[in-house]
Design goal:
The complex is a heterotrimer of chains A (663), B (1062) and C (277). Chain A is built from 18 helices and 34 strands. Chain A is of the alpha/beta class. The radius of gyration of chain A is 30 Å and the shape is globular. The longest helix of chain B is centred in the middle third of the chain and has 21 residues. Chain C is of the alpha/beta class and 277 residues long. Chain C has nine helices and seven strands. The chains are: A alpha/beta (663), B alpha/beta (1062), C alpha/beta (277). Chains in contact: A-B, A-C, B-C. At the A-C interface, helix 3, helix 4, helix 5, helix 16 and helix 17 of A face helix 1, strand 2, helix 2, helix 3 and helix 6 of C.
């Protein structure tokens, strides 16, 4: 793409950013240097270019000087490019005639020790930006349609909340859940802190609401396989796993399970109880339908039995069901796939998995729960005895600097309060038990949290600062912990009947694959990366895909619900648009040069280039709506027939040359 | 004997397998297919064409090799009755003569030849450049998907799987969808009645001759590499550059006999062609780079073929090529310049070191690669040099009945001999399978032509994209739109490939749909594609000639690729011109000519008898007319061959077969007085004197009607003058000597042969029985290579060697001297030369222009001391009948006087006196020496330009028995191809005379090369014989009165084109 | 041409006062964000690096990698997302393929491959980015100025360096090179059209041979674009055998890229087609 033949009229604005830039860079010198550059009609320095005053100055100049290119030297374009593009548009200019020089994040902030060099660098960056600006061409954004539907992936409390928000806004919502029932981890909890509400009591009405909301379609026992398209127009392929039970016919009477001969450890109860091969995960499950565990079903594994089929009066058992893949079109996606508890067996020093009386906090939830395997009676798994001395060990799988064994360096945020809750519940039910909590730091930042913690202390729970090195099992099944109390400096050598490991929250299984399917980035901790840690906490780098709940980072229920609300609102906003404007960063293919080698077609990760047979041979054609503008095609094109819009070789070369000019 | 065996089994399959697609294979295939047999041509390489395709020019005419060969290529590729199976080898041969089952394995090509249009886009972009370009003799690289050369047949690319990395680019780019990566080897069985082997040769690998530095020194190249350097289609586009630095070499050395005549490396035989090709390359190099000084280092200059000596003379005189007789000892390199030092012994015995810029090694011809395997598969025997074993008296038959051989597989030979043998082998195969002729061939049946009377021109225009070859440059849709606006155009469309199968169907549909009466195709060159489209429209009921073509590729898009707009305009112009011409086109008739199924053979010598027998064996009547009273001709004077065959026994048997053959009518003591008519319909008047033993009263005049004529009038032995020939009884010619040797008149008793040195003076003369060592001196080139007869008589060196060995056989003590200029024992004959030397025959080379002098003993005009080595020391007053031969020995640079008991003159071969008369009768030309002149030296060695007349034996030029036999078979085969067809379709484009305008001046008669015009004595106007007219239009252009028009290219049509273009 | 490399200095020697010019191509999503994070975190690093933002490291054309050397850059950095994290799924793998092959070209031309740097920086790795830049600048200082003559590792003069950089730019702009770079990974990982995985050795050998050819061709084009040159002129300029030059010159001549200008003595001289006035 060649620049217009008319000499461009460029305005350059060098931002002080208060003292952020001006404190290091001699902005006046930069401005002066810029004013002498080819095509620069006006160069100014402003205190805050992004401020209203700053923007007005630019708007005035555009009018007054007839500017047709604007160069802003300020902060990162990642921060303000959109702002200034909007400004240009408001002034009747094409927004792509803006170029920014990042003289803050990549200059003043990192070269504060050498003003002179920083100033020289700033000049070079501005020179380069001007060089590129000369070659910028107006681009038209392409438009895409908007499908006014949303898919929520993950049926935990975050997903449920998001779906409800959306459904209640009248937006058709698909709630996709991998398990046979929605509910997620919250359904497994006994009580919630700090109010000690019964977890399922507050969740289950919402689940019922989901089932009853006519705008929400629950796709349980289903997984996202493939995502194509872009904001406003995603096509999601969902694998509906065979349930072998007709959801509509099943009334949940349980006759089938009663007769089923196969007993399987019950994962809902953390394998501390049993279920049948045909089962319902928990009585309040939504959908309230049984499911056949194909891995264990005698008929499906050995070819005979079919007892459940016989006993089901409604004929809801359908053995000839198979997996099927449905393609669902939506305009936005909310990802709320939650977390998985850290696998404590990866810390062999604590003996989880080896010592029956070492359990995790989630195991404890099931044990203490009235619906659980012990019907709410505190019994230790080893011998079903009621433990008298109980220890909690905090930060198992969290705050692990070495990040060994899959543990996170981050704080899982909720474990302190979970432990406080669980210790409190023991004390409440068994006041004479001795409860010790080994902790690193007690983190009780939240409404009512500190108060709850103090209540626990008041009840006689012993909080010991220190992380035990190991847990040893004695012959009688009791567990010995030797640890230093960092507050007193004493070595404590204590024996317990049961040890509860407060496991951290880890990214859920399969998140890597899901991220790839959705083309989302993950942060260093393995959770999905939000659009901006401060300002775009539930957005992602992909327009139209939003995050809710622990898939973004560990958080407690209210935070998850709050984020779900945000994500739902953003998704709804997307769906309420008539059309989506897309950045026109795609390839321009010069068919005279294209030799039809198909390299672009083969390398394009989005299938956004197809080679077609034409009168003049095979020629590559860009499929604009599918293109994301990465430029792989342009950089690979064997015949150099592809020019990337807004990132053409000409522009980049001009930038390069300008950067290297000796000023 | 090729023709005597009939198929032993009951079944005779009317198909022939030809192995090898070089010039030999192509000729054999075309002759066979033309005479009613289906041909499977199996070629190992991806395309046919063979070595000839790689040559730049051919000697001695300097014709462009590809230009003269490509019509045959195209014909083979398109012939309805030739199936070209490339990239394939024969794995198994079962059965017997008449009914073979052959297993052919087709190596994967990875490209579907049916779909590939040869557009070349794949090769242009293939990223691999790893393989050496074998077609360019390894100079430069070629991509992994390639064709050998642009004219390749089939014009289909092939993937070299060894170097292909499998990147997939070619498939991505192939618009025709021809790439097949999943191709696998395929085996098929074919059924044939006979097999012709023509696999060619392999060039000697000169790196085996380490002293010449090939492979070590970049500027030492082989003759084939140099051929490619010279070729305009070669790596340097014909510019003579040397490989080390791309400079133009000034001094070029050619080293002969690399891998030939060499006991240690390569063959002991002579490769026959190197002297001539080196001379040719030297000449062409000089033409391409005038500064070149070429030096040819040779041992004997073996320019023995027709016109060869004259060519060498021209090379010397006109092109300044220097010939140095020596054997080069070593080549070394000057490292700094990469120049080369050639070390050799000069003729005066000094060791000379001379610096050259480039050295060309004239590598010999070896048996083809895998000849051993070939022999195994086909069950044939090889000779000691690895070539197919054949009999001198049956040179085309291998040791397995039904399997014939031609070309270099039988022994090194040049193109015309290969072509001759190929036709001969085809004839032999045809004779074997005569009964199955026409059983397997396909014939094209056309619908009747549409009656277009009263229908104006309705033109359909089809414009080809040729993939992107045209479409990438020319805006084809715009040309189509333009074509639609032209007058008379009722339909226009564009095609991705107009030549593709589906488009042919489409054109036919459009002819029906739009009632088209003329078709214009704008695509590539009419030279390759016009016949295809003509067939297409003919199949749709339109006359062949209602077709015009615009060449918008070769002469437009390919040459104006950087100016697409202008190219588009030009394409429009060309289409407009073609449309303008098309509007005026008229249907032309291709008149079938009825063919009389008989042949006249003039001359009853070896060639004539073989030819007559072949005609008869193939089922045609033969009239054999011999001027002498007996059949046999020159052969009657030959008694044995070099290999020792009994020639006279052969002759007796041959004569008996001729005489007893019911289809051969023999007329001895007869002369052809007049031949009238033309191809297929000759009428001759013969005068037969045989009945009355030459008495005048018994002369019988016979009228014969026949379809073809074979001229085999033979030649005569030169009658020497001088040398005391005819004056002294001990001076004889080679054939006289042979006569005596054969009759037992030699040797004489050896009872008193134990004479001491001083008895030398009393050596025996012929017939003297007194004993002692006899001295026989043979003098070569008597009557050859002199001012009067500049040509080499070809056979004399071998004859001398043959008789010398025979002398040594019967008289081991005899001193035999052969005084020669060059010993031309080409091919396998070289081994006999070697044997003669081994047996003590003394070879003395005398200088050009200094003929040895024969005198009676005592009369010798011996100079000072020149007699030192004669028998003088023994006194020797006795001079009755004893002779002395004086000669300058170039090696010793001494004048020798050699006493001789017998002097044998190797008298040359001279054309028959009667040739001139026959030439007039037949209206065929003679060459400057008085031999008959063939139609084309290289590719039509047994044809005359006058169709239906063929040539064989000594009448054509001096040649040996096996060569004569091969040529006779060839002439017969060519003749049979005419006879077999029954009727011949002639070209529709012919001249037409408007009688009213013709002044009868006869200029056109002179101009016509094909003798197709005569002045009709009745009206005194020119008359065109449409059977003979080739449509060249020379007459029309010559005619002063504008009385002649060329149909299909009338003035009106041409003017229409011109005005459309302007 | 690598054999031509003039003996350079010992590696690691510091160049006093040499401040290298480094151009960086950073992808928008990870590395540019990482660089911003370094700024947000106020992590100081040397000023030598000047950044050009691209959407993806996969956008960085090999031509763009070599271009800076023509304009005085001493080194080039290409930074992208960590493997598996590419915002555009696989652009960084393409970048890696390209850098690896451009390294081969630089090796072949006697330019130290250390002048072209590839690494991955995530949006969260501000500190790592700052450290990386600091370290890289030090390493470039040790290499010395590009074209710094004896003061540089390669020992190439400025003109020679620029010439070779121009050759490298043309090589990487060539169709054959680019096609193979694009296919390389798939050929060895997914297999070729025959369903065989091309061994890295074979793929490497092919790439080497293509680079060898293309370097000579590009050099001929550059030289024939300046003045009429003979095969021997070119060979002595490049310090390679004239035989190799002839083969490539003949190829370029057949393709109409160069044409005969005149014959000086016995040496034909060639110019770039169309350059003949």
């Amino acid at each position: 793409m060649q620049a217009s033949t008319v000499q461009p009229r460029i305005g350059v604005y060098v931002c002080h950013c208060g003292l952020n830039i001006a404190g290091v860079v001699d902005v006046v010198a930069v401005r002066e240097s810029a004013s002498s550059l080819d095509g620069v009609v006006i160069a100014r320095d402003n205190k805050y270019t992004c401020s209203e005053v700053g923007q007005k100055t630019i708007a005035d100049d555009i009018r007054e000087f007839g500017l047709d290119r604007v160069v802003i030297a300020s902060c990162s374009p990642r921060l303000h490019e959109k702002t200034f593009r909007a400004l240009l548009e408001k002034c009747g200019m094409n927004p792509f005639l803006l170029e920014m020089a990042n003289i803050r994040e990549q200059c003043s902030w990192v070269h504060s020790g050498d003003s002179e060099a920083a100033t020289e660098k700033a000049k070079a960056l501005v020179r380069s930006a001007v060089a590129r600006a000369r070659l910028l061409t107006p681009l038209l954004r392409s438009e895409g349609r908007v499908v006014p539907k949303v898919m929520v992936v993950g049926g935990g409390v975050a997903g449920i909340s998001a779906a409800l928000y959306l459904g209640n806004m009248g937006i058709k919502t698909y709630l996709v859940e991998r398990q046979p029932s929605i509910g997620g981890h919250m359904a497994m909890l006994d009580k919630t802190f700090p109010t000690l509400d019964c977890s399922l009591c507050i969740l289950s009405p919402k689940m019922v609401e989901v089932a009853e909301n006519e705008n929400i379609e629950v796709l349980s026992y289903s997984e996202v396989e493939k995502v194509e398209g872009q904001v406003g127009d995603f096509r999601v392929q969902v694998r509906r796993k065979a349930r072998y039970v007709d959801e509509d016919k099943c009334v949940g009477c349980g006759d089938c399970a009663a007769k089923c001969p196969v007993r399987v450890p019950d994962e809902f109860n953390r394998s501390m109880g049993e279920r049948k091969a045909i089962y319902i995960p928990f009585p309040q499950a939504i959908p309230p339908a049984y499911v056949i565990d194909a891995e264990h079903c005698r008929y499906l594994t050995q070819g005979k039995c079919r007892v459940c089929e016989k006993v089901c009066e409604r004929g809801a058992v359908v053995f000839d069901q198979t997996d099927r893949v449905e393609t669902i079109e939506v305009g936005a996606i909310v990802v709320a796939t939650g977390f998985q508890p850290y696998d404590a067996s990866k810390k062999p020093q604590y003996g989880y998995g080896r010592y029956p009386n070492v359990i995790t906090s989630l195991d404890f939830e099931r044990i203490i729960c009235a619906d659980g395997p012990t019907h709410g009676k505190l019994k230790r798994p080893g011998d079903q005895a009621t433990p008298k001395r109980i220890a909690f060990i905090q930060c198992v799988g969290s705050r692990d600097e070495h990040r060994l064994d899959g543990a996170g360096a981050y704080c899982s945020r909720v474990c302190c309060m979970i432990t406080a809750k669980q210790a409190f519940m023991i004390k409440e039910k068994y006041p004479d038990s001795e409860v010790y909590v080994y902790y690193t730091d007690m983190r009780t930042a939240g409404k009512g949290f500190e108060e709850f913690y103090q209540r626990g202390r008041g009840e006689g729970i012993v909080f010991v600062r220190g992380k035990p090195g190991e847990v040893r099992e004695e012959e009688d099944g009791s567990l010995r912990i030797t640890s230093e109390d960092l507050d007193s400096g004493c070595i404590l050598d204590l024996s317990f009947d049961m040890v509860v490991l407060a496991v951290g929250l880890a990214p859920p299984e399969g998140l890597v694959e899901l991220a790839q399917r959705l083309n989302l980035s993950r942060s260093a901790d393995g959770f999905l990366l939000e659009g901006h840690p401060k300002l775009r906490p539930f957005e992602t780098s992909i327009d139209g895909i939003f995050l809710a709940g622990c898939v973004q980072f560990p958080k407690d229920i209210p935070d998850s619900v709050a984020q779900a609300g945000g994500a739902a609102a953003a998704a709804a906003a997307t769906c309420s648009r008539q059309k989506i404007e897309m950045d026109p960063l795609g390839p321009v293919i010069d068919e005279d040069l294209c030799i039809g080698c198909r390299l672009c077609e083969m390398l394009c990760p989005y299938g956004a280039i197809k080679v077609e047979k034409t009168d003049r041979g095979y020629k590559a054609r860009s499929i604009e709506v599918a293109c994301k503008g990465c430029g792989v095609c342009g950089a690979s094109c064997s015949a150099r027939a592809i020019t990337m819009k807004h990132y053409s070789n000409d522009q980049i070369v001009a930038q390069t040359k300008a950067l290297l000019e000796v000023s | 004997m090729a023709c005597e065996t009939k198929c032993p089994g009951g079944k005779t399959v009317g198909a022939v397998l030809v192995v090898g697609g070089g010039i030999g294979g192509m000729q054999a295939a075309l002759d066979l297919a033309g005479s009613g047999f289906f041909v499977y041509m199996v070629e190992a390489r991806p395309a046919i064409g063979g070595t000839m395709a790689q040559l730049d020019k051919t000697f001695p005419t300097n014709d462009c090799s590809m230009c003269i060969m490509s019509p045959k290529l195209v014909e083979c590729g398109r012939h309805l009755n030739i199936e070209v199976i490339t990239n394939s080898t024969v794995e198994k041969v079962e059965g017997e003569a008449g009914d073979f089952t052959v297993t052919v394995v087709n190596r994967p090509r990875y490209v579907d030849p049916e779909k590939c249009t040869g557009c070349g886009v794949c090769a242009q972009h293939c990223p691999v450049g790893a393989a050496r370009d074998t077609f360019n003799a390894g100079l430069g690289k070629r991509p992994s998907i390639y064709i050998d050369y642009p004219q390749a047949v089939p014009l289909a690319y092939v993937i070299d799987r060894d170097t292909c990395v499998g990147c997939g680019l070619c498939e991505n780019m192939c618009l025709a969808g021809a790439i097949r990566y999943d191709d696998v080897p395929r085996e098929r069985k074919i059924s044939v009645g006979a097999i012709v082997l023509a696999p060619g040769f392999r060039a000697f690998d000169p790196s085996l001759r380490q002293e010449y530095g090939y492979g070590r020194y970049p500027n030492v190249v082989t003759s084939m590499e140099f051929e490619r350097i010279l070729s305009a289609s070669g790596p340097y586009e014909g510019r003579v550059l040397r490989p080390s630095d791309g400079d133009i070499p000034e001094k070029i050395a050619f080293i002969q006999c690399v891998g030939s005549r060499d006991r240690a490396h390569g063959g002991r035989y002579c490769s026959s062609v190197c002297c001539m090709y080196a001379t040719k390359e030297a000449v062409i190099a000089k033409e391409h780079a005038p500064g070149v000084q070429a030096t040819i280092f040779y041992m004997d200059m073996r320019s023995y073929g027709k016109g060869f000596d004259a060519y060498v003379e021209r090379a010397k005189k006109e092109y300044g090529v220097r010939y140095v007789r020596t054997r080069v000892a070593e080549v070394s390199e000057v490292p700094a310049t990469h120049n080369l030092i050639v070390s050799f012994e000069s003729e005066d015995g000094r060791v000379v070191k001379e610096e050259f810029d480039l050295v060309v090694l004239s590598v010999g011809l070896e048996a083809p690669e895998g000849a051993g395997r070939l022999a195994e598969v086909f069950g044939i025997q090889l000779d000691e040099n690895g070539f197919a074993r054949t009999d001198a008296l049956d040179p085309l038959a291998t040791t397995r009945p039904g399997v014939y051989v031609c070309g270099a597989m039988q022994g090194p030979k040049d193109i015309p001999e290969t072509v001759t043998q190929a036709s001969g082998a085809a004839g032999a195969a045809g004779a074997l399978l005569g009964s199955a002729r026409g059983t397997l061939v396909r014939e094209k049946v056309y619908p009747p032509e549409k009656d277009l009377r009263g229908v104006g021109p309705r033109i359909g225009v089809f414009i080809c994209h040729c993939g992107i070859n045209i479409g990438g440059v020319v805006d084809v849709p715009a040309v189509v739109e333009y074509a639609k606006t032209l007058p008379n155009v009722v339909y226009a469309e564009r095609n991705l490939y107009t030549c593709s199968q589906d488009t042919q169907k489409r054109i036919q549909e459009k002819i029906e749909e739009h009632g088209l009466t003329r078709v214009v195709v704008a695509s590539c060159t009419p030279r390759t594609h016009e016949p295809l489209f003509q067939e297409t429209i003919r199949e749709a009921g339109l006359n062949h000639y209602l077709f015009a073509m615009a060449n918008i590729r070769d002469q437009c898009s390919w040459v104006h690729m950087h100016e697409p707009e202008k190219a588009t305009e030009k394409a429009k112009d060309l289409v407009r011109a073609a449309v303008a011409k098309a509007a005026l086109l008229e249907p032309l008739e291709r008149l079938p000519i009825e063919v009389k199924r008989s042949g006249l053979v003039i001359g009853g010598g070896l060639a004539g008898m073989i030819a007559a027998l072949d005609l008869a064996d193939q089922g045609f009547q033969a009239y054999l007319v011999e001027a002498g009273s007996e059949l046999g001709g020159h052969l009657r004077r030959i008694h044995y061959t070099l290999g020792g065959d009994d020639v006279q026994a052969y002759l007796r048997e041959l004569t008996a077969r001729v005489v007893s053959n019911p289809l051969i009518e023999v007329h001895t003591s007869s002369e052809v007085m007049e031949i009238a008519g033309y191809l297929g319909n000759f009428r001759s008047r013969i005068v037969d004197r045989s009945q009355g033993n030459g008495e005048a009263g018994a002369i019988r005049e016979i009228q014969l009607e026949h379809g073809v004529v074979i001229v085999a009038t033979g030649a005569a032995e030169f009658r020497p003058s001088g040398f005391l020939y005819g004056e002294h009884p001990a001076v004889v010619t080679q054939s006289e000597l042979e006569e005596r040797l054969a009759s037992g008149a030699w040797p004489l008793s050896r009872a008193k042969a134990q004479a001491g040195p001083c008895d030398e003076g009393r050596r025996l003369t012929l017939g003297d029985e007194s004993g002692g060592r006899r001295s026989v001196v043979m003098i070569q080139c008597v009557g050859s290579r002199d001012d009067e007869r500049s040509y080499c008589s070809r056979v004399c060196c071998s004859e001398a060697v043959k008789n010398a060995i025979r002398l040594k056989d019967v008289d081991p003590d005899a001193d035999v001297y052969i005084l020669y200029r060059d010993i031309r024992t080409y091919g396998g004959r070289e081994t006999y030369f070697e044997e003669a030397r081994r047996r003590g025959v003394v070879f003395v080379r005398y200088p050009e222009g200094q003929m040895p002098v024969v005198s009676r003993w005592g009369d010798a005009a011996t100079g000072d001391g020149a007699s030192a080595r004669t028998g003088d020391s023994c006194g020797g007053g006795d001079s009755d009948g004893r002779l002395v031969v004086e000669v300058t020995d170039t090696l010793l640079d001494e004048r020798l006087a050699i006493p001789a008991d017998v002097v044998v003159l190797s008298a040359g071969i001279v054309p028959n006196e009667g040739n001139r008369r026959i030439a007039q009768v037949l209206k065929v030309p003679l060459d400057e020496s008085g031999f008959f002149l063939e139609a084309h030296m290289k590719l039509r060695p047994v044809d005359f330009a006058t169709e239906g007349v063929f040539l064989a034996g000594l009448a054509h030029a001096p040649k040996t028995i096996d060569e004569t036999i091969a040529q006779a078979h060839a002439a017969a085969a060519r003749a049979c191809a005419v006879l077999a067809s029954g009727a011949i379709a002639t070209e529709g484009i012919k001249s037409e005379v408007m009688k009213s305008r013709c002044a009868g001046c006869g200029l056109c008669v002179e101009a016509c090369q094909y003798k197709a015009i005569e002045i009709d004595p009745k009206d005194n106007v020119a008359k065109v014989n449409s059977a003979l007219c080739k449509g060249c239009g020379l007459c029309a252009a010559t005619c002063r009165c504008g009385a002649i028009t060329l149909k299909g290219f009338t003035e009106e049509e041409i003017l229409a084109e011109v005005s459309a273009l302007c | 041409m690598a054999d031509l490399a003039v003996e350079g200095r010992a590696v690691g020697e510091r160049q006093e006062g040499f401040e290298p010019q480094v151009v960086g191509f950073l992808c928008n999503w990870c590395s540019y964000a990482g660089a911003d994070l370094a700024g947000t975190s106020r992590l100081a690093y040397p000023t030598n690096l000047r950044v050009i933002r691209v959407m993806c490291s996969g956008r960085v054309d090999p031509e763009i990698m070599t271009e800076p050397f023509l304009h005085g850059a001493d080194a080039v950095m290409v930074l992208g997302c960590h493997p598996g994290d590419c915002h555009y799924l696989s652009g960084n793998y393409q970048a890696e393929q390209r850098v690896r092959t451009v390294w081969m070209v630089l090796d072949h031309l006697g330019i130290d491959r250390g002048r072209l740097y590839l690494d991955w920086v995530s949006a969260a790795e501000g500190a790592r980015f700052a450290d990386m830049v600091s370290e890289f600048v030090e390493r470039v200082k040790a290499l010395g100025p590009a074209g710094g003559g004896p003061a540089s590792k390669e020992g190439l003069s400025r003109d020679e360096f620029t010439f070779r950089a121009e050759v490298s730019r043309r090589v990487v702009a060539g169709e054959r090179f680019r096609w193979l770079v694009g296919r390389n990974k798939a050929l060895s990982e997914e297999g070729n059209v025959y369903g065989e995985k091309v061994s890295p050795e074979k793929a490497g050998a092919l790439m080497q041979s293509v680079i060898a050819d293309e370097c000579v061709r590009a050099a001929i084009e550059v030289l024939a674009g300046e003045a009429p040159v003979s095969v021997r002129d070119i060979a002595s300029r490049l310090g390679i055998s004239a035989q190799i030059v002839l083969e490539q010159a003949a190829y370029l001549k057949r393709r109409g890229i160069i044409e005969l200008y005149d014959v000086l003595g016995r040496s034909p001289r060639y110019v770039l087609a169309g350059a003949r006035a």
